[in-house]
Amino acid sequence: MLDDVIFWVLALLAVASGVMVFRFDSMARATYALLTSLLCVGGEVLLLGLDYLGVVIVLMMTIEMAIMAVFMVMYMMNPAGLMPMTMVHNKKGAAVICAAVFAALAAGILLAPWLSRRGRPSADPTMDLGLSLMGPQMLTMMTLGLALFATIVATVVLATRRGRYDRFGDDLKARTADDPVRGGMGR
Amino acid sequence: MPDAAPLWATVILPVALAVAAVITAGLDAVVSGVAERGHAGSVGEAGRRAMAPLREALRLLVQQPRRTTAADRLLERLGVVLVPVAAVLAGAVLPWGFRSVSDPSVGVVWFNTMEALAWAAVWLAGWGPNSALSLIGGYRFLAQGLAYELPHMFAITTAALGAESLRVGDVVAAQDGLWFVVWMPVAFVVYLLSALAMAFWGPFEYPLARDAAGGAAVELTGVDRLVLLGGRWMLLVVTAGFSVPLFLGGGHGPLLPGWAWTLLKTAAVLALLVAGRRLLPTLRMERYTELAWMVLVPLTLLQALVVAIVVLNR
């Protein structure tokens, strides 16, 4: 009973704050509305008994949204997120796509032949979920992880304006890097 | 093994944290007073200096609030309130002796999550007032988080690795014989550094530094200011206190009961941090970031590797 109440409160909050992401005209409010929505999802995962996953979702999403604030300064035509802006472009198209996706997912939930429980719930659902998701495909997952990480590094390397030739000279022989701001390592 | 704490502990926790925060702030006021105005001379004068934070708190309670134009009051308030709330929620997994308000199976991750919440909160508090210096302070704390958060995570992971559990009670139990600080000294030192950084205090007060006229807190007045700055002291107490179950054996120790050892160790760590503050200037984040990523991350990874090898050969 209490679980049902918590589920519905979190679910409604998640959807409502998800909607607000597109209603706010402030990037900061939109960011934190999205964070609220994701924290509610983390709460739902906790409700499923997946303690580790739930807390990690809360942790990762908080850090992610804060880093999004950094990206607002770095890459957006919106210095420090101070100007009013909307998160929606192509308003009608976006609304149609969103409604269609939501309807498809909701129909899937309602129409899927859900299994009824047999036996008892396992003592450590996080472990079991991990095994059934990744157990036989550990090699694929490891490769995927490495590929993702390599992509991140490559993107940063490509995006940075100053490469090693700017820092250490054309022959890379300079002893100290020529940086506009000195770091903390005495270089 | 730790037992569940009684329900009243939930009510006591915020009060105990607040009291500890006032005492720590008082100690800091005395230590700063010696550096700035010379020795107190008499016990009465030292006491007056120790009461300075409380007087300041009372003054803030009756201060006339000041508003800025086009401020986002909602986000500002949210950010300010989240700081002490995150501190109290993090304190819920802090064992007092061998009991904590709650001891979930993922306590270590929970603690880290609450710190991350405080991290996001300070940016809100800095962004909200629509003021340049306060905005700079908020963004400084984001940069600070990027510097300290990775070495910090590796440090607490190392302690969890040594205990082979994310439950804080298990981490304490694993230190029955040998404290983790003995064979994880690097992780301990990095943890203390990031505890200061997380509470944006002492050498890491860059987000609220004087060169930005008070940074993220510059526009905060009255109760708002009291809640943020008080929350910062609570955050410092909680993060310093969490080093006790992680590295200093929790309530383990001879003769005295567990709660007394926790109290003694927490007080010792806090005294070390408050006294050590005088030795370091405020660190600029572009400098600390390079140190953190070039030196501290490899060091903590090596430390984790050593611990992992020891654990595998056990």
From TrEMBL, chain B:
It is a multi-pass membrane protein. It is found in: Cell membrane; Membrane. PANTHER family: NADH DEHYDROGENASE SUBUNIT 1, NADH-UBIQUINONE OXIDOREDUCTASE CHAIN 1. The keyword Cell wall biogenesis/degradation does not apply. InterPro entries: NADH_UbQ_OxRdtase_su1/FPO. It comes from the Bacteria. The chain crosses the membrane at residues 6-27, 74-96, 116-139, 146-166, 178-201, 233-252, 258-279, 291-312. It holds the Pfam family NADHdh. The lineage of its organism: Bacteria, Bacillati, Actinomycetota, Actinomycetes, Kitasatosporales. Keywords: Membrane, NAD, Transmembrane, Transmembrane helix. This is NADH-quinone oxidoreductase subunit NuoH.
